[in-house]
Design brief:
Blueprint lengths: L4 H10 L1 H12 L12 H4 L5 H9 L3 H8 L8 H13 L3 H11 L7 H17 L3 H10 L7 H20 L22 E6 L2 E6 L10
Antiparallel strand pairs: 1-2
Helix pairs in contact: 5-6, 6-7, 6-8, 7-8, 8-9, 8-10, 9-10
Length: 213
């Protein structure tokens, strides 16, 4: 991590606002899936795998959720893998990590599946603002991978690790609700804001993971 020294110093000088922005940038790191690298047979999975993998690859999460409900063995490696992926997609990072930990108890998971699970776990920790744990998962993937797509994932994780090294000591963000506030929101979701003598209309995004003005 010596190469990140100048980068870390620059970010620290920028202050906490830049740290939040870094988190926002990392939040955009998606978790892709290439089903061509992992066959159902090598994963020890049942006949549902090809269809479920195809839905995950195109990120049709609602169809995948519906189809997964038809899998009879809910605790099979097949079901756990796609459940963890869905929990991540539907922003349930703690549940997703718990499912991944259960899946890691199974023996003989293919390297490509293990790498993707670690990538999901890394992003889950970022969503939970647990940057130290995210960095630990990231560094554990260095040197892994046995295909071109795996190497691309590891390279992306390395870049994310450089950012995580800067904010690893930042504690998880917490929100304290001290009082109730009513906002006048119109039908378009806009909130009137007065900034000194200037009247503005802003959109209030209730689903934002990070808000930076």
């Amino acid at each position: 991590m010596h190469e990140t020294g100048a980068f870390e110093s620059a970010v620290r000088r920028a202050g906490i606002a830049s740290l939040a922005l870094l988190g926002s940038l990392m939040q955009g790191c998606g978790v892709g899936f290439d089903s061509s690298n992992v066959s159902g047979r090598s994963f020890g999975l049942g006949p549902h795998y090809p269809e479920l993998a195809a839905l995950l690859q195109v990120r049709d999460y609602f169809a995948l959720r519906t189809r997964l409900q038809g899998v009879s063995d809910r605790e099979s490696p097949e079901a756990l893998f796609f459940r963890a992926s869905l929990q991540h997609a539907f922003n349930q990072p703690a549940l997703s990590n718990a499912t991944i930990d259960t899946l890691f108890e199974h023996d003989a998971l293919p390297d490509s599946i293990t790498l993707r699970l670690k990538q999901i776990k890394l992003n889950n920790y970022i969503r939970l603002h647990r940057y130290r744990e995210a960095l630990d998962v990231a560094t554990a993937t260095f040197g892994e991978g046995d295909s071109e797509s795996d190497f691309a994932i590891v390279a992306d994780i390395r870049n994310t690790a450089r950012l995580l090294a800067v904010i690893a000591s930042v504690p998880p963000q917490e929100a304290s609700i001290r009082a109730q506030t009513t906002l006048p929101i119109d039908d378009a979701g806009h909130v009137p804001i007065q900034i000194e003598s200037s009247a503005r209309s802003y959109t209030f995004d209730t689903g934002a993971n990070f808000s930076v003005l």
